[in-house]
TrEMBL record:
<dbReference type="Pfam" id="PF00294">
    <property type="entry name" value="PfkB"/>
</dbReference>
<keyword id="KW-0808">Transferase</keyword>
<protein>
    <submittedName>
        <fullName>Ribokinase</fullName>
    </submittedName>
</protein>
<feature type="domain" description="Carbohydrate kinase PfkB">
    <location>
        <begin position="4"/>
        <end position="268"/>
    </location>
</feature>
<dbReference type="InterPro" id="IPR052562">
    <property type="entry name" value="Ketohexokinase-related"/>
</dbReference>
<dbReference type="InterPro" id="IPR011611">
    <property type="entry name" value="PfkB_dom"/>
</dbReference>
<dbReference type="GO" id="GO:0016301">
    <property type="term" value="F:kinase activity"/>
</dbReference>
<dbReference type="InterPro" id="IPR029056">
    <property type="entry name" value="Ribokinase-like"/>
</dbReference>
<keyword id="KW-0418">Kinase</keyword>
<dbReference type="InterPro" id="IPR002139">
    <property type="entry name" value="Ribo/fructo_kinase"/>
</dbReference>
Length: 277
């Protein structure tokens, strides 16, 4: 089962601390991890960890820091395509501090501020069961979603925040998985052509609605050790489960995978515990 994912890949520098520092305060970290991050990249790692084939379309470029992401994605079994390999600027970067006692975190990010142009059709791939887009590289997201719609492949949107491209992208989306903070100007997402709207809210129940039904699915109770990327893991599991489960079982499956992720400290410990790459 192949999931095609198009969007952001960052370099995450993650430091685990006893307490998050106050402004002007310096603290010593308990551990340091460097890994590929970002919504689409973390979702791709999840698909691979669950036993699927993950093809990630993203921007890495030629800067030396991009090699860190390439190495990590390869180690996690993710097949990736850099649509702008000649870009010399540093890749997107996130500085993360995670509080050891409860997994809460702070994140300072430099995301895809300037999305480069690209040529060709990198999304051309056989056997794709679902597509996930995060909207961070607008032309890439639109091209991938249009290709998927033409092929009859379900499109999942990771809607963490409103982006201008969503005006064009939403009519191409089958499932919009939104954060609790997501706000769309204008018409409701169902009125924009989205068949299913799902809203996550951390440890609170996940709500879903269609034109004819609505409901919610509880999140498993678990001791959280690290919440970094848990939403991205949830989206990856959701995309992997499309075609395998129907609502609300699809949401229950994604909830269970995300609950597994937060039990382990570090960006990749949960993957190793599953016996995957």
């Amino acid at each position: 089962m192949t999931v095609l994912l198009a969007g952001l890949c960052t370099i995450d520098v993650v430091q685990r601390v006893a307490e998050l520092p106050a402004p002007g305060e310096k603290v010593q970290s308990l551990s340091v991890d460097v890994a590929a991050g970002g919504p689409a990249a973390n979702a791709a790692v999840t698909v691979a960890a669950l036993g699927g084939r993950a093809r990630l379309l993203t921007v890495l470029g030629s800067h030396p820091l991009a090699g860190l992401a390439r190495a990590d994605l390869s180690a996690c079994g993710v097949d990736f395509v850099d649509i702008a390999p000649s870009v010399a600027d540093p890749p997107a970067l996130s500085a993360v501090a995670v509080r050891d006692r409860d997994g809460e975190r702070t994140v300072v990010s430099r995301n895809a501020a300037n999305s480069p142009a690209f040529s060709g059709a990198p999304w051309e791939l056989d056997g794709v069961s679902a597509v996930l887009v995060d909207g961070h590289h607008p032309e890439l997201a639109l091209g991938t979603a249009r290709w998927a719609r033409a092929q009859g492949i379900p499109v999942v949107l990771d809607a963490g925040s409103w982006k201008p491209v969503l005006d064009e992208l939403l009519p191409l989306v089958d499932i919009a998985a939104c954060s609790a903070h997501f706000r769309a100007p204008g018409p409701d997402l169902l009125d924009r052509g989205v068949a299913t709207v799902i809203t996550t809210a951390g440890a609170d129940p996940v709500r879903w609605r269609t034109a004819s039904a609505a409901g919610e699915v509880p999140v498993p109770a678990t001791e959280a050790r690290d919440t970094l990327g848990a939403g991205d893991v949830w989206h990856g599991a959701l995309a992997y489960g499309v075609g395998r489960f129907e609502l609300p079982e699809l949401i229950r499956y994604a909830n269970e995978v995300a609950a597994r992720r937060v039990r382990y400290a570090g960006p990749r410990a949960w993957v190793m515990r599953m016996g995957m790459p």
